[in-house]
């Protein structure tokens, strides 16, 4: 035992040296590979092959080498260090790609448009007093209240009805199909559906149907508030209902049939079973779907930009952020809008995490 202890003590400097040399060697090797790929004039196919080999092989080499170093430590220290080996790189990347830019954006939100002078809360005051920015905030609220709610309610309703139908697979495929389309492509598709031109010759699908029944064609996306926003929100509902349906349908299949049969034998009606048994049973999944769709809705950008470009009082926070930061070069306003959007998303995520933790404890 004493020999083993003394041998370990003699090996400590060697382990410490390897603990420093191996990460440095990894950094040097991968930096040299990066320089080689950056400066070499290779065929694009060769570039792609080398990048794939470097990405896959490089990650494995980093893991294997660092794990080898950790294996040289005693069991006690190995158990302490190994978790950091697995989660350390992920935390480092999150800090680099998310935390640092967030802090930088927060600092810029307290500066002027050129990020030269500290202006305090002036940008935040402007966001909540400027008419255009207030319209953007109000529209985001419309998207969340009507868009997210409709997606969740329709997704749950379709999931329940589809599970009891003999055409379950076909119905789910049709409802889920829009999820395969990008938001930009969906905007282009619905732009043709809502297309309006003066006269009776209408090429827009919706106006063609209205005219065929003797009605007057309408400029659906340029009419007064809030109707034009509601027609844009319909696109979100068309796309995200399938997502809610699939997730909630999987949760519904996990409800024990014995409980449902017992409730029916006790005389409970289908509505009572739905609200007293099914909803509480899938509450965690329902909360996760709700959170996901609300966060997605708060960040909505593509549809509004493609359909109206934010005109006709359809601006949302994301389009105003893009306009202020990239088009008007107003770093202060743009950063403030980004922080406002972040603040709006944080409570939703925190609430979701608390509910999931509570469910885990139960």
Describe the protein's architecture and organization.
This protein has helices at 2-39, 44-71, 75-108, 122-127, 131-163, 168-176, 183-193, 205-212, 227-252, 257-265, 270-281, 283-298, 302-307, 317-327, 331-361. It starts with a helix and ends with a helix. 21% of the residues are buried. Helix 5 (131-163) packs parallel to helix 9, helix 9 (227-252) runs antiparallel to helix 12 (283-298) and helix 14 runs antiparallel to helix 15. It is mainly α. It is globular.
Short characterization:
With 362 residues, this protein is mostly helical. It has helices at residues 2-39, 44-71, 75-108, 122-127, 131-163, 168-176, 183-193, 205-212, 227-252, 257-265, 270-281, 283-298, 302-307, 317-327, 331-361.
Mean pLDDT: 85
Q: What name is given to the CATH topology of the largest domain?
A: MetI-like fold
Principal-axes geometry comes out as globular
CATH homologous superfamily caption of the largest domain? MetI-like
Structural class: mainly alpha
CATH architectural label of the largest domain: Orthogonal Bundle
Number of domains: 2
Q: Approximately how much helix is present in the residues?
A: over 70%
The top-level CATH class of the largest domain is Mainly Alpha
The total count of helices amounts to 15
* Strand-residue proportion: under 5%
> What is the H/E order?
HHHHHHHHHHHHHHH
**Biggest sheet, in brief?**
none
Radius of gyration: 28 Å
Which spans of ≥5 residues are poorly predicted at pLDDT below 50? 1-7
